[in-house]
Amino acid sequence: MQPIFRRSMNMHRTSFFLTVLVITSGLLVALPAQAQFKLVKISKDSFQNPDSQHKSEVEPDTFAWGNTIVSTFQVARIYGGGGADLGFSTSTDGGNTWTQGYLPGLTDNYKGGLYVAASDASVAYDAKHGVWLISSLPISNTGVDVGVSRSTDGLHWDAPILVDRSGGDDKNWIVCDNTSTSPFYGNCYTEWDSSSALMSTSTDGGQTWGAAKAPADRNWGIGGQPLVQPSGKVVVPIAGDSGMIVFNSTDGGVSWSNTTLISSVSSHGEAGGLRSANLPTAEIDKAGRIYVVWSDCRFRKSCSTNDLVMSTSKNGTKWTAPVRIPIDDTGSTVDHFIPGLGVDPKTKGAAAHLTLAYYYYPVSACGSNCELDVGFTTSQDGGKTWTAGQQLAGPMKLSWLPNTFSGLMVADYISTSYVKGNPFAVFAVAKAPSGGLLNEAMYTTTTPLLASSNVSRFSSRGERPVPNAKSDHPYVRFHDVERQGPPEKENKETE
Predict the structure, then answer these.
(1) Would you tell me how many other CB atoms lie within 10 Å of the CB of residue 210?
(2) Largest CA distance in the chain
(3) Could you tell me whether strands 403-404 and 131-139 are parallel, antiparallel, or unpaired per DSSP bridges?
(4) Which one of 3.20.20.150, 3.40.50.620, 3.30.420.480, 2.120.10.10 gives the CATH number of domain 2-494?
(5) Please, are residues 174 and 123 in contact by the beta-carbon 8 Å criterion?
(6) Distance CA 381, CA 269 (A)
(7) DSSP string, 124-149
């Protein structure tokens, strides 16, 4: 592990300090962003295994508790699925400094692991047992399992504990019940999909896990993000064949309900061969209201671009009609996708604070000349109004990204978390390759993603979907991990 960034309150001094560190370490980099935001590189790929596309990092998740933020992600992406290992970068001082490392005992690339790759990092904290948990998909040459790595400080990690070893698993997520008054306080729940959505429960800080259980109707879904309400009810928004669907448990994971529909989805297919799965991002406020965001073209003529839309629920059963998040107007050419929502867990209802990071193309119809950016918007009133979209990173050329069996990749999901009222997003940023290697790594901002009180805010109230809106591409089930070799061209490039 190595500490890799310290933030100074004196921004001029910080810029000088970072410049010196860039020269001496080759790791610390501060990138200019719009307005007051600067970016800092918080991790790097130092592996040299021949089957990865170095130097690359993709697909982060984050979680915050107290002063600590843990981010986790794939390192050294492999064409056929996963990375050489999962990495982490942790701040124990509210985003001032970050320390990076890799999960031990997970893959054969680092400290005695048995698997050839790992994918789909997701992180949670169990307050009752005082333990951090990173959920993973350990990948062998014959299949994909579900594992969990444990840490008491977010810096030192144990070898993974297997949750499921059936070999046919995909797209996992993890959450813990941290409400001390909940009847299931200390339960942790991990979700993944196989022939159906599946859930497993731990009551001992992730040391042991119960048998996999499906929703009562055994419906399939992918990219579920379970959330726990203060009552202990677990709600799992997930992408299904019919759109965004949801199921729940009210008995601590003993049983799970049928799936029901949150909303249908109409989506625009991203140009340029970019991998974009249109999975939900979901968070919860202090009162238990759930916010689910995804990409949708229902407010655009001819499904020309995707907006980010949001549906909310107080009980996980009845959901509001999706509303457009007004990042820009409906006449714009901007295409928005791969969102990562954060909700301040100390706020609620009409005063809930939300921050949404996302990727976007400034021009949706960009053919083979697409420019990829990262942006964000924020709301201080539970999503009633939002700031205009603001650029954080880019433009990036798609040729700077690692390739996968389902497209060029930055992520299937990204993440935003609040630490003591301050939102930080973590996301992959790519720069021009050098020396035959990529140059893609995890970044965050040196200051939290806060907007001034006098900044303009916008509402989409009164907007209606375009009549008969529908996707501009055929629906195909997204599958994340396939153990297959790269096409011949990629084999030549990595040799």
Answers:
(1) 14
(2) 59
(3) unpaired
(4) 2.120.10.10
(5) yes
(6) 31
(7) EEETTTTEEEEEEEEE-SS-B-EEEE
Q: What is the pTM of this model?
A: 0.91
Q: What is the total residue count of the chain?
A: 495
Q: How would you write the pLDDT of the chain (495 residues) with one tens digit per residue? A: 655 444 433 333 233 222 222 322 333 333 333 357 999 999 999 999 999 999 999 999 999 999 999 999 999 999 999 999 999 999 999 999 999 999 999 999 999 999 999 999 999 999 999 999 999 999 999 999 999 999 999 999 999 999 999 999 999 999 999 999 999 999 999 999 999 999 999 999 999 999 999 999 999 999 999 999 999 999 999 999 999 999 999 999 999 999 999 999 999 999 999 999 999 999 999 999 999 999 999 999 999 999 999 999 999 999 999 999 999 999 999 999 999 999 999 999 999 999 999 999 999 999 999 999 999 999 999 999 999 999 999 999 999 999 999 999 999 999 999 999 999 999 999 999 999 999 999 999 999 999 988 999 999 999 999 999 999 998 888 776 655 444 433 332 222
Domain ranges of the chain: 2-494
Instruction: Locate 64 and state its tokens.
Output: 């915050």
